[in-house]
Structure formats: structure tokens, C-alpha cells
Amino acid sequence: MGGQVTQERREQIFNSALKLMRSNGFQGTTMRDIAADLGIEAASLYNHISSKEDILRNTCFSIGNRLVQSIHEVNDLYFNAEEKLRWAVKNHVLTLTENLDASYVFIHEWRNLSEPQRTEFISLRDDYEKQFTQILETGETEHLFNATDKKFAVLTILASLNWIVEWYRADGKMKAEDIAVKLGDFILTGLRKDSI
Amino acid sequence: MGGQVTQERREQIFNSALKLMRSNGFQGTTMRDIAADLGIEAASLYNHISSKEDILRNTCFSIGNRLVQSIHEVNDLYFNAEEKLRWAVKNHVLTLTENLDASYVFIHEWRNLSEPQRTEFISLRDDYEKQFTQILETGETEHLFNATDKKFAVLTILASLNWIVEWYRADGKMKAEDIAVKLGDFILTGLRKDSI
DNA sequence: CCTACCGATCGGTAGG
DNA sequence: CCTACCGATCGGTAGG
């Protein structure tokens, strides 16, 4: 009870680790690096986490599950395809921007998961892509979208969305919601002017 | 003189190394892994390459220079903005698909470059992005594109283009040229149907 | 949370 | 291209 003034140590470890892994990669970040960032010894980390991969595993599935959950909600709750797409984009952008270091690791370092987590992670990602594809199918049914190759379109869209972890800064000019709108616009209409 | 029946050993080393780095990352690939793939000892590699980073450096700058050169040509030779964009997309797609493993390493592992190469690489990338931005500016001048935030648009476009190294397979259904056309279409018009 | 330490492995070199 | 080997460093454990 009562507000905690200090972060839990486990959370601090995750924050330091993800910050370092973003810069130097999972394999390029050592337990000694993480410990030094917190001013303790590497051995002390093991009182709070079970292994280095513990950090990676929790991060990848935490972000992944959040994304999957939110797109299922979108597919359950909203009916117009364009609206669905805009909500899916917004959820994706907000999840990433609100967890920048974790999202960066989620996108770039999941390959370092050992089995069976690696396979499990790929299933989670496939589920997400399938839900996204369903939005495009809805749009086709409603005669709103013209994506002939929906799998291709989804991968292209997700690439655009994931790229924001490369350049987004919380203190930058563009707010996350603005980015979501601009990405939604781009995905829907591309570069070409509607009328000259 | 005369046709060489066997690949140069240095080239074989690069091929093995890039294949392994694509699967396991730069730091996750050891000199012993590369040597084992070729059936020799790790120490023998040093008769052909000077270091592990030698492989990374050559790969990143080889792909990077090729991309930069081709986009400069596009900006020098073709005048219509849409045509320029389609050529730039095509060149990008062909460069990546024709050098899949190298391109994957180029996109994902350049952060492992040590200074001053890392900074030099970023300059090269900035040059490329600047040339791409110029195409969008041409399109605006010609009243063809409506990209208000061109830097943002360029990063989004490049994200879509770079994503192909994740899923492209030389033996797949889609040929590189088809992919270039579809990506060009998507970038120009997005998902929305022009008329209902 | 620390000291002390382990077995394994790394990139690279010497010398042939 | 190999044998033999180096100094450094890694993730993690024992025991307090």
C-alpha cells in the first residue's frame, strides 16, 4: 500500500538493459554492462532476473501480446474498414512510442530467443499479421480498398509502422497521435495528389 | 586468363559469412563458424581477410555505394518525378534482391561498425535519403505529389523498401521487377480505391 | 548485494 | 592452410 517512491529493482534492470540493448544489441550487451549502469555487480542481477534471456523473453512477449490484444479488439469493435485501419495504426504507433526501447528490442532482437520461445514468438507475430490482413479483407468487401495482394500490403504497412522506433523521440516535434494520422493518410492514399 | 572454375576463396568466405550473419547476426557469428562452413580452420581465414569487421565494412559500403550511385543517376537522367520515383524504387529493389544476404547485413548490422566507419556510413545513408527527398520535392514542384513532410515520407518509403530483405526469396512467386512495380503503386496511391 | 571464481568461448597471432 | 596458443571476456554459480 502507499505510493512507492523508488522503482522496483527488477524494473530498473529492465530499463537499463533495454536502453543498452537498443544501442549495442542483445549480444552486444553484457550482464556487466547492465550492472555497471546501475552501479552494482553483475552477480547481483541474478537476485532479480534468472538470465539475460529472461529480459529478452519478457520484453518480446510483453510488446507482442499487447499488440495482438489491441488488434483483436479493433477487429471486434469497429466495423468500417477505414476506421479499423486507422485504429490499428494508432494502437500500433502508441504501443511502440510508449515503450520505445522495449519496442526496438522487440523488433530487432527477437531472433535471439532460444527455442521454443522463438517459434512461439513467430506464431504470435503471424496472428497479428492475420488480424491485420482481415482488416484489408473487410476493406475489399466494402469496396474501399483495392489491395489485390493483401499479404504483401500488410507486410509493407507493418514495415512503415515499425520503422518509427528508429527515429521517434518522445521530445520531438511530432506527437505519437500525429504520426499515427500521417501514417494512416500515407497508407490510405500514398503520395499522389487526388486531383491536379 | 581463362574462365575460373572455382570462386576466389575471399569471395567464398564472404558468402559463408554473410549467410551466417543473416541467421545469427554479426556478433552471433564467430570466425570458427565461418571457417567450419568452409571446412577449414579459423586461423586460415586470416590469409584472406584482415578481420571479422573487414567483412562487415566491405559489405555495408559495397551495398551503400551502389545504392547511392544509382539514385544519383536517376536524379541526373530522368525528369518526370513519378518516373524518377519508379526508377529509384526499382534500383533499390534490384540491388537488395540481387544481394540478399549482403543487403540483410547492410540493413541490420551496420551498427556494429566501429568508428570512424560508423559515422562515414551514416553520412552515406544521409546522402541517399537526401537524394530520395529531392525526388519528392521534384514531384511537389510538378504538382504530382502532396507530401507535406517529405523527410517523413522518405523514411516511410525506405522502410517499405528495406523490408523486402525479410521475406524475399529468389525462388518465390514474385520476381524482383514485379515487387518494384507493386511497391511503386503502393507508394504512389496507397490502399484506397481511386473511385467507387 | 558482494567476493571469488568457473568453464567456455571469443578474435586474433606466431610460426611454420 | 594448419597446430598451438594468447589474453580477454562472457553468462552464470557458490557461498556468504
Distance between the termini of chain A: 63 Å
Largest sheet of chain A: none
The number of strands of chain A is 0
Class derived from helix and strand content of chain A: mainly alpha
The pair of chains with the biggest contact is: A-B, 40 and 39 residues
Oligomer: homodimer
Which shape of chain A, going by the Cα principal axes?
Answer: elongated
> What is the string of helix and strand elements of chain A?
HHHHHHHHH
Uncertain ranges of chain A: none
Work out the strand percent of chain A.
under 5%
Rounded radius of gyration of chain A (Å): 19 Å
What is the overall number of helices of chain A?
A: 9
The pLDDT mean of chain A sits at 92
Q: What does this protein structure show overall?
A:
Two copies of one chain form a homodimer. Chain A has nine helices and no strands. By secondary structure, the first copy, chain A, is mainly alpha-helical. Chain A is elongated, with a radius of gyration of 19 Å. Chain A starts with 8 loop residues before the first helix and ends in a 7-residue tail after the last helix. Chains A and B meet through helix 7 and helix 9 of A and helix 8 and helix 10 of B. The structure holds a DNA duplex (16 and 16 nucleotides).
Give a quick summary of the entry.
The first copy, chain A, is mainly α and 196 residues long.
